[in-house]
Amino acid sequence: MALDRLIKNILEKKNPTVAGLDPKLDYIPDYIKEQAFQEHGCTLEGAAQALLTFNKGLIDALCDIVPAVKPQCAYYEMYGWQGMRALKDTITYAREKGMFVITDGKRNDIGSTMEAYAAAHLGEIQVAGERFAPFGGDALTVNGYLGTDGIAPLLKVCKEKDTGIFVLAKTSNPSSSELQNQEVQGGEPVYLVMGKMCEEWGKELPGKYGYSGVGAVVGATWPEQLAELRKELPHTFFLVPGYGAQGGGAKDVAGAFDEKGLGAVVNSSRALMCAYKKEGCRPEDYAMAARREAIRMRDDIAAAIASV
């Protein structure tokens, strides 16, 4: 089961974190952009090349200490097909370096359309008798608010290709409470209902560490709900955004973990990508600054949870 690979990486590195690769051109050092623009012009091609070069530097600096990366599709889609090629190349490079890749696409549809999303991001397609993996991620974030019709096509591909999903449950943004905290019949909030659906869907993808291949996205900005969901969802692994730039800290995410220090992986994006700016170090040292921030984050979280 795919999330077993993530958990194995976490255990080996004793680090339950994931590096978000959500690059904006403003985050990228000028020398990388200048080189890309000299080669490809000030074009979408040049921008995409700058993203890829930046990402490769981060992956090289982090791959031995951070178990996973999470590229957010929107930051690549905004640069057209050239950006999407950079996404594919980033995924391939990270996997070659032994990192687990969570593609953050929050896809949501039903039937053949969801089958297409599943094939694109987690599976394969067939072209004239040959099979290809278009993006080749290990897991995909999805929106479960269309119900089982939107999840079942993914589960089929996950079984066949040993991939996984993370379903939005209690997201980190402030307005998530407008819908996700509403109580449904029986008095349970929507986020808990969605979490329990993850538990049910996950029965089709059992894992050897006790967690299924159907994870849930639960934000660090809601520590009480995070701890509540950990108690209610014993077989659901959590992807936890909101640490760092969004205000969540180690004490906030501690409730996501079980007594073995497992059960969650905590994301940081901007704090890693822009660590060199915060440090005030040379732009050429951006990757090593990200590494230092990743070590700080690892140690910060480790001090707040049981030993992994």
TrEMBL record:
Record-listed E.C. numbers: 4.1.1.23
An annotated Gene Ontology molecular function: orotidine-5'-phosphate decarboxylase activity
Active-site feature positions: K106
Domain Orotidine 5'-phosphate decarboxylase: 16-290
Cited PROSITE patterns: OMPDECASE
Catalytic activity as recorded in UniProt: orotidine 5'-phosphate + H(+) = UMP + CO2
Pathway: Pyrimidine metabolism; UMP biosynthesis via de novo pathway; UMP from orotate: step 2/2
InterPro entries: Aldolase_TIM, OMPdecase_AS, OMPdecase_type-2, OMPdeCOase_dom, RibuloseP-bd_barrel
Keywords, sorted A to Z: Decarboxylase, Lyase, Pyrimidine biosynthesis
Protein name according to UniProt: Orotidine 5'-phosphate decarboxylase
